Amino acid sequence: MIEASSGFAGFCGISDEAEFGWYLRSDQWCHSYATEATRLLLRFGIESLDLCRMYATADPENLASVRVLENSGLTATGPSG
Q: What is the pTM of this model?
């Protein structure tokens, strides 16, 4: 769960298949919560779960989410990458 000083902001997690992601309430966008969650999930997956590769998906039209993933060191693959 992602909490702001005002309470629930969203949630994040990692699946058994090493896919990770987040959901944020729209009133919590632009507070860097997605960037922080992404970096924490990547570090946890690699250091604690011993994952060699992790992935996330983002709608190519959602530029904010795409930027979060790129700024966290991920590279695009697949049809749009």
A: 0.84
